[in-house]
Amino acid sequence: MAVPCVRVPVEDGEATRQRLADADLVDADYAITGDDDALYIPVTAPESVSDDLDVVEFDAPERRTQTTPADILGFDPSYERLGDIVVVDEDDDERARDIADAVVDSDIPVETVLNRASKIKGEQRVRDWDVLVGDSTETVHREYGHEFALDLDAVYFSPRLATERHRVIEQVSPGEHAFDMFAGVGPYAVPMASAGAEVVATDVNETAIEYLHENARRNGVGDRVTAIAGDVRDVVSGSSRADRSDGVREVTGEYEDWADRVVMNLPHTAGEFLDTAVALAGDDCVLHYYDIQHEDGRFEAGETAIRAAAEPEYDVAVETRHTVRSYAPHEFNVVLDVRLTRR
User: Fold this and answer.
1) Measured between alpha carbons, how far is 131 from 118 in angstroms, rounded to an integer?
2) Rounded CA gap, 203 and 266, in Å?
3) What is the pTM for the complete model shown?
4) Nearest 5°: phi and psi at 158?
């Protein structure tokens, strides 16, 4: 459709657009369009454009704005996206289905909409779901340049922790030994390997370990990740089986005194594994210890527990006390970055 536009040389486009915007003359219903020689900036009132600018009629395309669920519902619903899955958390079934319908009718690329039907439960750390749209709980989630295949019906994964995971990954140095004690599908393990670390990752959820193998290969770090299905305490103190692309081998406590970095992302019960973390630690090792604590004492209990497990064999220095997110009223998910230095 031909609409009034200011025609300017390409090199003057941004300055002219800003000038017209300052005068509230840019027509937001149409897109700014260019060719080899000029930009065409749609304007709302051509008669108000300064005489030193050239106003012409030009066939500018209508600007297409993305329709969001909030546009459809009239309120901003809470949801998370993992790949092409949208997750809602609604107690009211009718409200959940209204949100699901709005998500599908919006411009969000989605194949499945799930509603949380239970809390995380059991050793496998999985939950029940109500499938509101679609028929698959499997997806590929992208995070900071990495891809993670996963099935939400069979494994635990939280996109809310992406920033925290990236904070830890940025501390990893090439060549270091990193041990992820509760690895899931590999959102710590795979990026640590991409950063150049040799990584050992354990999880009691065998399906998660299968996905971890796939994700290591998918991200080109299969040769730097050893993924072991089983309780990390058994891996360190006894024997376990490690499934690798080159076969199945026995692991018999070979990781004692091995690690330069240990990730302990099991906030409710990580304290039960501190003796194992200390056994893994080499002469100089950083623990990333995750915890859930009341707002009035977020870090003291974790620090006390780490000192009890590591001293006097190690000097214990807390390098970071960091609140990751709110977990429940007056409770917070926190992390301690703690350096253990053998005496």
Assistant:
1) 13
2) 11
3) 0.77
4) -125, 115
CATH number, domain with residue 50: 3.30.70.2580
Closest residue by Cα to residue 73 from 101, 92, 115:
101
Separation CA 214–CA 209 (nearest Å): 9
As for how many domains the chain has, the answer is 3
DSSP labels, 223-290: GGEEEEES-HHHHHHSEEEEEETTEEEEEESTTTT-EEEEEE--TTTGGGGHHHHHHHEEEEEEEEEE
What are the pLDDT digits (tens) for 207-219? 999 999 999 999 9
Rounded to an integer, what distance in angstroms lies between the CA atom of residue 230 and that of residue 183? 11
Region of 272 (left: φ > 0; alpha: ψ -120 to 50; beta: rest) is alpha
- Torsion-angle region of residue 131: left (phi > 0), alpha (psi -120 to 50) or beta? beta
* 237 class by beta-carbon count within 10 Å (0-12 exposed, 13-18 middle, 19+ buried): middle
Structural domain range at position 25: 2-59
CA atoms within 13 A on the CB side of 55: 16
Q: Are 13 and 34 spatial neighbours (Cβ–Cβ below 8 Å)?
A: yes
Question: Cα-flanking dihedrals φ and ψ of residue 131, to 5°?
Answer: -85, 110
- Per cent of the chain over pLDDT 90 is 72
Amino acid at 281: A
The DSSP result for 70-139, as a single string, is HHHHSS----EEETTEEEE--S-HHHHHHHHHHHHHSSS--SEEEEE-S--BTTTTB--EEEEE-S--EE
Same domain, 104 and 224: no
pLDDT tens, position by position, 33-63 = 888 789 999 999 898 888 889 999 999 888 8
- Alpha carbons 32 and 17: distance in angstroms, whole number: 9
Q: What is the CA radius of gyration of the chain?
A: 27
Residues 6+ apart with CB under 8 A from 262: 178, 179, 180, 181, 277, 280, 281, 285, 286, 287, 288
